[in-house]
Amino acid sequence: MAGNMKNILITVTAAFIIIGSFAATALAGSRTLTDMNGRIVTVPEKIRTVVPLGGALRFLVYMQSLDLVKGMERIEQKRIVAGRLYGLATVDLAPKLPIIGEGGAGGRLPNFEKIIEVWPDVIIAMGLDNSQIANIQQKTGIPVYALNYGEPGILDVQSVRTALTHLGKLLGRSKRSTQLIANIDHLQADLAQRTAGIAEDEQRAAYVGAISYRGAQAITSTEASYAPLAWAGGKNVAAAINTPGHIFIDPEQILSWNPEVIFLDAGGLEVVQQDYQKKAAFYKQLQAVKKQQLYLLMPYNLYHTNIEIAYADAYFIGKTLYPNRFQDIDPPTQADEIFQAFIGMKGYNALKKEYGGFRQLRLGE
What we know:
By secondary structure, this protein is α/β, with parallel strands linked by helices.
C-alpha cells in the first residue's frame, strides 16, 4: 500500500511539474527544430539546461557546453578512461551531478524519475532510435533532441559535421560548432594534401587488427574501411572484403595478404599478446612481424566515436607509412594540438599512461 501511494505521489508530482514547465515554456517562448532523426521537436527559445544520453556528453565537451549539463549517465562517472578523452574535461564536474541512468550499450533506458527531478530544458540523445526517444519523451514530458554518428561502426565525418551544426543551432552556440567544423575541414585538407599524388607502387599495404568490438578482440578483428588509414593514404588490405563496418578475418586470410605493415588497436593488445603465446608460429610468418613493422594505435571507439583520437591515429599512421610526407609531424605533439582543439586540453600523456602511446611493437615482450 505504501509503495502504491509513493508511486501515485511521484506520478502526480511529475504531472504538476510537466504542466508547470509547459506553461513556463509558453511564457518564455519556444521554437521548432528538426533533429537528426527527422523528428520535429519543440524546445525553449533559449536552452539553459540539458541532460545528455548515449554518449552525447562527448559533443557537449566539444561544444564547450558543460555549463548546461545537469545530469550524467553512470558510465560517464564510474571510470574516467583515457579512451574517452572528453572524460578528462568532465572529471571535476562528474561527482557533482546526479546520475540519471546507467548508459552504455544495449539501449538501456534512463531513470525517468531522476530526469524529471533535474528537469532540463531538453534531453540530448545520441544514437537512439525513434521508438526509444518517443518512450523517453512520453515518460518524462521533456523534449528529446536526437543526434547520431551515422551508420554503426563506421566513422562518418559528415555525420559528425551535421551533428555539430544541429547542436550549435539547438544550444545557440553556432560560433563554436562552426569553429569545430572548420578544424575538421583543416585536418581533412592537410591529410589530403600530404597524401596527394601517392603512386600505386608507392602506396604501402597495411592491416589494422585487434579493433575493439563489444570488448577487446584479437588480431583478426578489423575494418575494411578504417578511416584513419584511408586518411593517411595507406592501402588497407582488408578493403578487398568490401564490407562496411567491423569484420572478423580468418587468420589464413591475413597470411595470404601478408601486409607490409600491421597496426594494432591498443584496446586489444593484451588479447594479441596472449594469442601470440599460443600461436607464435602464425605471427612469425607475417612479414610485418619479421621486419618489425608492427605498430600500436590508440583506440578511438569507446562509447561511440572519439573523433579527436581518430585524427591523432591518422597522423601517426601517416608518419609511419610515409615519413617524408609527414617529416614535420611529431605524432604526440600533433595529437595534443588536436585534443586541445576538440576537448580544450592536452591528453596524449593520459593515452600513453593507459595504452602505451604510439610506438613500434615486438610481440612477446
